[in-house]
Each structure stands twice: as structure tokens, then as C-alpha cells.
Amino acid sequence: TYNFCAGPAMLPTEVMLQAQEELINWHGRGCSIMEMSHRGKEFMAVAAKAEQDLRDLMQVPSNYKVLFMHGGGRGQFSAVPLNLMQPGKKADYIVSGAWSKAAAEEAVKFGGINTQQIQLKTDGVRSLTAEKDWQLDPQASFVHFCPNETVDGLEFTGVPDTQVPLVADLSSTILSRPLDVSRYGVIYAGAQKNIGPSGLTLVIVREDLLPKADANIPAILDYRLAAENDSMFNTPPTYAWYLAGLVFEWLKRQGGVAAMGQINQRKADTLYNYLDQSDFYRNDVAAANRSWMNVPFFLADDRLNDLFIAESEAAGLLALKGHRMVGGMRASLYNAMPLEGVQTLVTFMQEFERVHG
Ligand code: PLP
């Protein structure tokens, strides 16, 4: 089977097999890594290697802290304003779809924000307003945006050029291609798409943005406390951290994020090219803003939707039903999805079109 779920998503098969083998007897220690103390030397070594591998993969500069936190993407919707909002200043929230909208709605609880809606729909085609047309406050505490909108299937091609710290919710696109960390103040991502299982949240924060010791922030969301305690202020999600480490090792074996970027582009092209030549299916996102990771598509006759889902599941192509806010179908093509999975999907779609078109 191939699992096209938007999240939690499939992990690489190799990683699952390794985890299975190590599950109850990790490295001959007679117990599972999930049963070991997070402060013991075994887990500390696993944790440190995962961090180093991530640093290598993303070429994280030395003036950035890498934090392994709890609370998922939504936890960061609160953590970002709590840690970064400066007194008397507002923050700019760029709203390009469902997740950046949810981030803005949460941030309002913690300070003043300006929101800008930048998703457009013209003649049935959805796109994003060019950055030159955004109104940014040069005094803002930070600018928050979501480079890949998981629900909407829209993504940015460039990195906004801001005077103030740029905060990115990379939950559904982290590690999918190379990225220049130094352009960002804070990067965060729930793990459950390209990193590992849910329960773990990755935060990469520039050191000068860590809050001051007297900041009144719930301890569990405080970047400074997490950094000072090597992400072990409380018991971290150890098993998820270990699995993330296995995924980072797997990514290195694939050739790192540059190689992933090439594979991911091929995967996305394979599906979009097929959609574009078909009258039976369509994707409604402008070419420049099409997501590599989440591809929404529609059948021309939506009375066939239920049949499409039933037959695709029967063919081992799982979780293609679109998000309830968008409808239709959605194929999520995260790192663990091999090119063959996308090719198998396209072959299935061709056959479905032949029979029902
Ligand atoms: N941000 C993005 C871009 C997402 O795709 C998601 C979940 O799919 C979230 C945030 C919320 O993540 P979580 O469920 O871990 O809180």
C-alpha cells in the first residue's frame, strides 16, 4: 500500500523495519529505547546524534538552537507570540490558507497582530499575492508565514525578504528540499509529516531571539528554558525523538535534502502533468504556487468521488479523500512517499478515467 495521508503520514519502510527490529531490545540492552531514562547516556547519545544529523541536513548555523518540543504545530501557534512578541509592538501574520489563519487566530490571544489575506481566486484559479504587494510593518516583532499550506495545497516559491525576524511554520514541507536557515528567525514543524511520529515538535530558533529569563511564559512553551535544558526541561517525547533520528539517518542515506528536493520535484511533476492533460481531473492552483507536498485535485463529476475513494483504497492507495474544507481529493507526497507510489497513483487514475470517463 501507499499512504497519501496528509498527516500523520507514512514513515520510510526502512525506518519502520529498523524500529521494529529494535523495539523491545534496543542495541542488545534488553529493553526498548522508550523505556530508558531520557537522562541516561544511551538516550542522550541518541538525542545528540539526531540533533547533529538534523543540523547537518539543514546546515543549521551555529547561532541557532535546535529544540525538540511537545505540543505540535498548534503548540507553536501559542509559543511563537509568547516568546517573540515585544511590548508595544505588533506582529505581521501572512494568511495564505487554513493553517496560517489558525496561527493568526491563536496569536491574537497574546498580543496585537496585523493579518494579511494573500490567497486569491481568479477565474477559478487559486494563487498567492506576490510579496512586493504585501504591506509589512517595519517595526513588527516578527512576520509569521506558512510556506506550505497543507489543506489548501499552496506554497511559496521564495523566502519573504523582511527587516524583522521571519517565523515559518514548516510543518508540511521541512526537509523536502534545501533551505537557507539563516533567512529565518524561527522555524517550527510538527513532526508527523517529514520528520517522524506526532508528539514531537521541532523548533529552530536564532539565539538572540530567545526570551529573557524574566519573561512570563508557560514553562513548557519557553524556548529559553528548552534551550538551557537541551530540550529536557521535562520528559521529552523520547520514542518520537529516536524515530526522528532514524528518519534523519535515512535522509542522509538518500543523499540529503538536495537529493530529496529532486525526487520531490519529480513526484509532484508526475502528478501535476497528468492532472493538467486530463479533462476528467483538475487541480485549481496557479502553477507558481502549487505545493510539492500536498496536491488537491477534483473529479469533473463529483458524483464519482465515493467510488474513487473506495476503488483507490481497494487498490492499496490510502487516504486520498480531500480535506473537508476543500473537498475532492488530496494526495500528500511527503519524503517517505517513493516515486513509484505516485506512478502507481497515476496509473490507477488513468484506469479510473478510462472506465468512468
Ligand atoms: N501547521 C501546518 C502547516 C499543518 O499542516 C498542521 C497540521 O497538519 C499544523 C500546523 C497543526 O499541527 P498539529 O496537529 O501538530 O498541532
Automatic annotation (TrEMBL):
Q: Where are the N6-(pyridoxal phosphate)lysine residues found in this chain?
A: 193
Q: Which keywords does this chain's UniProt record carry?
A: Amino-acid biosynthesis, Aminotransferase, Cytoplasm, Pyridoxal phosphate, Pyridoxine biosynthesis, Serine biosynthesis, Transferase
Reactions catalysed = O-phospho-L-serine + 2-oxoglutarate = 3-phosphooxypyruvate + L-glutamate; 4-(phosphooxy)-L-threonine + 2-oxoglutarate = (R)-3-hydroxy-2-oxo-4-phosphooxybutanoate + L-glutamate
Spell out the InterPro entries in the cross-references.
Aminotrans_V_dom (IPR000192), Aminotrans_V_PyrdxlP_BS (IPR020578), Pser_aminoTfrase (IPR022278), PyrdxlP-dep_Trfase (IPR015424), PyrdxlP-dep_Trfase_major (IPR015421), PyrdxlP-dep_Trfase_small (IPR015422)
Task: Name the domain of life.
Answer: Bacteria
Listed binding positions for L-glutamate are 39
Q: Which cofactor does it need?
A: pyridoxal 5'-phosphate
Annotated Aminotransferase class V domain ranges read 2-345
What Enzyme Commission number(s) appear in the record?
Answer: 2.6.1.52
Cell location: Cytoplasm
- Pfam families reported for this sequence: Aminotran_5
- Asked if the keyword Amino-acid biosynthesis belongs to this entry, the reply reads yes
Q: Which GO terms describe its biological process?
A: L-serine biosynthetic process; pyridoxine biosynthetic process
Task: State which pathway it belongs to.
Answer: Cofactor biosynthesis; pyridoxine 5'-phosphate biosynthesis; pyridoxine 5'-phosphate from D-erythrose 4-phosphate: step 3/5; Amino-acid biosynthesis; L-serine biosynthesis; L-serine from 3-phospho-D-glycerate: step 2/3
**Cellular component, GO annotation:** cytoplasm
Q: MF terms per GO, please?
A: O-phospho-L-serine:2-oxoglutarate aminotransferase activity; pyridoxal phosphate binding
Q: How is the cofactor bound?
A: Binds 1 pyridoxal phosphate per subunit.
Which residues of the sequence carry a binding annotation for pyridoxal 5'-phosphate? 73-74, 99, 150, 169, 192, 234-235
Quote the subunit structure annotation: Homodimer.
Concerning its family, UniProt says: Belongs to the class-V pyridoxal-phosphate-dependent aminotransferase family. SerC subfamily.
Its biological purpose: Catalyzes the reversible conversion of 3-phosphohydroxypyruvate to phosphoserine and of 3-hydroxy-2-oxo-4-phosphonooxybutanoate to phosphohydroxythreonine.
Q: What is this protein called?
A: Phosphoserine aminotransferase
Species this chain originates from: Rheinheimera riviphila
